From TrEMBL:
Protein name: 2-dehydropantoate 2-reductase
GO molecular function, one term: 2-dehydropantoate 2-reductase activity
Reactions this protein catalyses: (R)-pantoate + NAD(+) = 2-dehydropantoate + NADH + H(+); (R)-pantoate + NADP(+) = 2-dehydropantoate + NADPH + H(+)
GO-annotated cellular components: cytoplasm
Source organism (scientific name): Haloterrigena turkmenica (strain ATCC 51198 / DSM 5511 / JCM 9101 / NCIMB 13204 / VKM B-1734 / 4k) (Halococcus turkmenicus)
Family: Belongs to the ketopantoate reductase family.
Pathway: Cofactor biosynthesis; coenzyme A biosynthesis
Length: 306
């Protein structure tokens, strides 16, 4: 099958390399110095699950690639709307655009541009980033990718994607029964982990050591779960405690991409995280004071970095 990886960074680059090693036709879409390195030296994956280097076609122009079976859509959430407008050359009847992004709004934003029928939801659990141009570093996490049709159907295309990802070495592939549950499940954790590490500009170990801060971490989780349930998302009981236990076991040096972007002057995904919680909460009449506080604290930084 033919794949385009739209945004060949930490998540997209990892998936692209693993699919290429499994024998699939993979094309990378990137930009800047990273694109130039991909063109000259190939994609180097340095992974705790095994290293690989693949020489794949790379471009910043989707028209160079043409129609694909799957587009793995891995851009930052603040680029979703603009990038969605560039997808047309990659699409044909049956093309699936699979979003592996942070947040719970990207699928809707994509659908508004290319139609509901083309969009597949996805969640990535992996700690990976661009270490230097042309090099993706996978430093930890389960490399677990969860995906599914937004309406829950087991279509031929989603089962074919499941087969392909299941066959990839270094990929824990999961076809979800309800991908919307999975999107909100991860969203709750991201808002707590990213919100607290970015707002304090500290690592998770230091946050765990302060009772008041650890309580705020919990309340951020609880608020997102409350909003999800108010919108009819059937999150499992005990999810807050499950994520707290997971966070207790994290390396104390862990932070978040939101904190990294804040401290390095880069655009931030705040609008797709805590900004989104605030919007969804207002729509369904739920109070989310902890998420409002994080949003208010980080909003000036997000505006400055933008």
């Amino acid at each position: 099958m033919k794949y385009a990886v739209f945004g060949a960074g930490g998540v997209g680059g990892y998936l692209g390399a693993r699919l290429a090693d499994a024998g699939h036709d993979v094309h990378l879409i990137a930009r800047g110095d990273h694109l130039e390195a991909l063109r000259t030296d190939g994609l180097c994956l340095e992974s705790v699950a095994g290293d690989t280097t693949v020489d794949l076609p790379a471009t910043d122009d989707p028209t160079d690639i043409g129609p694909c079976d799957y587009v793995l859509f891995c851009v930052k959430s603040y680029d979703t709307r603009d990038a969605a407008g560039d997808l047309e050359p990659l699409l044909e009847d049956g093309t699936a655009v699979v979003s592996f992004q942070n947040g719970v709004d990207n699928e809707q934003w994509l659908a508004e541009e290319i139609g509901d029928e083309r969009v597949v939801g996805g969640v990535a659990y992996i700690f990976s980033t661009i270490g230097e141009p042309g090099v993706v570093e996978h430093t930890g996490g389960p490399a677990r990718f969860v995906y599914g049709e937004l309406d829950g159907r087991r279509t031929e295309r989603i089962e074919a994607l499941d087969d392909a990802l299941t066959d990839c070495e270094g990929v824990d592939a999961v076809l979800a029964d309800d991908v919307r549950v999975e999107l909100w499940r991860k969203f709750a954790f991201i808002c707590a982990q990213a919100g607290m590490t970015a707002a304090t500009r500290l690592l998770v170990g230091e946050i765990r050591d302060v009772d008041a801060s650890w309580e705020m971490y919990r309340r951020l989780l609880e608020e997102v779960c409350t909003v999800a349930r108010a919108e009819g998302v059937d999150l499992p009981d005990g999810l807050v405690d499950e994520w707290l236990e997971f966070a207790r076991e994290l390396d104390p040096e862990m932070s978040s991409s939101l904190q990294y972007d804040l401290t390095h002057g880069k655009p931030m995904e705040l609008d797709a995280l805590h900004g989104s919680v605030v919007r969804h909460a207002a729509d369904c009449g739920v109070d989310v004071p902890m998420n409002e506080a994080v949003h208010a604290i980080l909003r000036p930084w997000a505006d400055r970095n933008q």
